[in-house]
Amino acid sequence: MDATKPPTPLGHLTAENLHSLVTRFYLGESAKNLVKEFGIACTAAKLHSIMPPALISDRFCPACGVQMQIAAVNRTSSRYGYLPIVVRCSGCEHYEHASCGCAFCVRVRQQLAENEENRRRDLIREFLGGDGEIESAPRTVESLSLREAVAFIAMVRACGYINETTLGSIDFSGTPLSPTYGYSQELIDLLRNARLIQASLQSSTHAFTFSESEITNCYFERLSWDLLVTDAKELVRELENVALSGNWPASWHEESEALWSELAFAESIQFFALCSQQRGWRPNLGDATNAMLENLLRDHSVAQCYRIVWTGAQHTADYKARKNISNPHAANVFIGACQRWADRARVENWEVKPLRRNFELPRTVVSYVLHDVFFKIGERGFSERIRTINPAQPNIPELMVLE
């Protein structure tokens, strides 16, 4: 390395002396002795701050072609890694670091980002299939089931429109689409199978995990969705008008209780999982839990189911503390505790007082659409048990409340 022409207070040194000073300084000689020997007008502690940058004879700037140089640094800090040695261009603003903001580095980063985006878009196109063309078709209210109608309106409200033919991701509105991940996926699969939506090739790359040559994972909740309906906004308006007027297609009445039960089950299992997690054991979300909750919802509202599950969780936590059982054991005891309490309530004709919604589990978009738009009962869909739809008033469900 060759030293450049130094500023004062090193101006009195010849090129040979300056080269010797720089070399000996970075080889570790005493700064105090060097200051005295070369007659430098500064303290030993400040010597590093007046050292000239050193040109690197075999390294040139990729932006302008001028020689690169190493700026003077505190030799102790650089030796032990406290300060990095920065290689800079002697003719422009470029320096060798990922954060360099010179025009050349900005262009390089932009090109690399564009190339990576194109690579990922190619992988997304291969993963999702298709060429980006949206094959839309006209749909009518009568062509949809009640379940499809509710899911479609909920999907539009949860995702929001990016444009006339594309919806955003299901977390766009900030309100969950449904109580559970599994139920949300079930509703989306329903709409995909009905050819109402499809995953959009314009989905964010954050919806996927990439390797060098393929997509290794896809997060459906981050996907955007193409609408396969000729005029989706008009269909949504027609569905809402029919729902609010009560002039339902005949087949919708038969689906009402089953659809209420689906949502009630999802809300109940969500609360069951929360009660388990709050008490320190992993929720057992298998067939036994599903059968127990379905049994509870035969003749209880979701709010009453909340009460039974909460009581079962309290009894299980107390039993765990007294018997010192393991968390997996407690998860199994919890299921039986809920079922036994519900059975005893039925036999002894107990009044099962409903609980309010847990503030950690807010209402979902599906709940608002089903209970407010279609059933027009609001939170009664949570606190009361729906049985059938009254044919005389098609949009007003008959409710069964245990006394």
Distance between the termini: 93 Å
How confident overall, as mean pLDDT?
A: 86
User: How would you describe the shape?
Assistant: elongated
Q: Segments where pLDDT lies below 50 for 5+ residues?
A: none
- SSE string, helix = H, strand = E? EHHHEEHEHHEEHEEEEHHHHHHHEE
Structural class: alpha+beta
The fraction of residues in strands falls at 5-15%
Number of strands: 12
Helix content: 40-55%
Largest beta-sheet characterization:
4 strands, antiparallel
Continuous helix count: 14
- Quaternary class: single chain
Provide the domain count: 3
Radius of gyration: 35 Å
Physical arrangement of strands within the biggest beta sheet: 1-2-3-4
Please, could you describe this protein's structure?
This protein is α+β, with helices and mostly antiparallel strands and 403 residues long. It has 3 domains: 2-89, no CATH class; 116-245, no CATH class; 250-400, no CATH class. The chain has 14 helices and 12 strands. The chain has helices at 15-26, 31-38, 47-50, 75-79, 103-128, 146-159, 181-193, 232-245, 250-278, 287-296, 302-323, 327-347, 365-374, 380-383, and strands at residues 2-3, 54-60, 67-70, 87-89, 161-163, 166-167, 197-199, 208-210, 215-218, 225-227, 385-389, 397-400. The strands form 4 sheets. A 4-stranded antiparallel beta sheet has the order 1-2-3-4. The protein has a 4-stranded antiparallel beta sheet with strand order 5-6-10-7. Helix 6 (146-159) crosses helix 13. The radius of gyration is 35 Å and the shape is elongated. The N and C termini lie far apart (93 Å). 28% of the residues are buried. The mean pLDDT is 86.
